[in-house]
Design goal:
The structure holds two protein chains of two kinds. Chain A is an alpha+beta fold. Chain A contains four helices and four strands; from the N terminus they run αβααβββα. A four-stranded mixed sheet of chain A has the order 2-1-3-4. The N and C termini of chain A lie far apart (52 Å). In chain B, 37% of the residues lie in helices and 25% in strands. Chain B has a six-stranded mixed sheet. Classes of the chains: A alpha+beta, B alpha+beta. Chains A and B meet through α1, α2 and α3 of A and α1, α4, α5 and α6 of B.
């Protein structure tokens, strides 16, 4: 059973890692978490992204929550900003897409066509 | 919304939008009384009486990105569907907002509680404090991030290891009160 005592040990380890962290040249992953997003499953998508970023031990990626992006029918929506501020918008994202988003978009800089919002807007 | 933890997440985002630094979430499950209640209290900017009278209207919202606001209307609808025991909002400008709903535990329309730990975990990535209280019949679990943050110092809950610890800690304690 995890206790408050365990937390102190984990905290020291986390502090060491935090010092090595370099957020320059990073990506910002933004997930829409308003009512529309939550009802469409954005919470699981967000958790999946956070967990995947943790698995790949990526220190240059932050996962951020925002409100409504204004395309409620296409939620869950995930937007990725690179260090130059270029924006890519993915829609109808499923939790299982998190791995592909990290592997292809973040690690290889390749846009995932099938999730692009441009392909869904009429 | 497929489960109660998603309603709680949605309502808590209202609190965050209102500039709250601390959110109190209470869940009371009483199988003997056949009641389940959810209450959320924040210290955000609050609402005027006029605003309170409008928030249950789905066509009222303060946001600019769209002109409907479904969070509170959906929660009210759920309370009405599940016995209509209680639905309450109290608020004053600059004093925060309190919202509470009580449902029948055996209502066929009551969704499952869902993953409340994920809801808390996500809320904590927003740099708010959470006071959480969950009762199941006579058992109670109380959790406050204020004390834990003192232990953590500059380390945030978004850090992978800390988040994992927190999720385990909450899951263990929540399982315990159901024993």
């Amino acid at each position: 059973m995890k206790s408050l005592e365990d937390l102190k040990k984990i905290r020291d380890e986390a502090a060491r890692k935090l010092q090595m962290r370099d957020s320059k040249d990073g990506f910002r992953i933004v997930v829409g978490m308003a009512t529309c997003g939550i009802a469409a499953g954005a919470r699981e998508v967000l958790m999946s992204l956070v967990e995947t970023v943790g698995l790949y031990e990526l220190d240059n990626v932050s996962v951020v929550q925002v409100g409504c992006i204004g395309e409620c029918a296409l939620e869950p929506i995930v937007e990725i900003f690179d260090s130059q501020g270029n924006r890519t918008t993915y829609c109808k994202v499923h939790p299982v897409d998190a791995d592909e988003i990290i592997r292809e978009h973040i690690l290889k800089n390749k846009v995932i066509d099938r999730l692009l919002i441009q392909n869904y807007r009429k | 919304m497929t489960d109660l933890s998603l309603y709680i997440l949605d309502l808590s985002f209202n609190s965050i939008e209102a500039g709250s630094t601390c959110i109190e979430i209470s869940i009371d499950e009483n199988v003997y009384k056949n009641l389940l209640s959810i209450a959320i209290k924040d210290n955000g900017k609050g609402m005027s009486q006029d605003e309170i009278s409008q928030v249950t209207n789905p066509f009222y919202t303060t946001r600019l990105s769209r002109n409907v606001g479904l969070g509170i209307p959906l929660f009210k609808q759920l309370c009405d569907l599940c016995g209509g025991n209680e639905f309450l909002i109290t608020s004053n400008p600059n004093e925060g907002t309190f919202i509470k709903g009580t449902m029948n535990y055996d209502s066929i329309d009551l969704p499952p509680l869902g993953d409340i730990v994920k809801t808390i975990s996500i809320l904590l990535m927003n740099d708010v404090d959470i006071n959480y209280r969950h009762t199941y019949n006579n058992n109670e679990f109380i959790f406050s991030t204020i004390k834990i943050k003192e232990e953590l110092g500059p380390i945030s809950f978004s850090q992978n290891e800390i988040r994992k610890w927190l999720e385990d800690y909450l899951n263990n304690n929540l399982n315990n009160i159901r024993r």
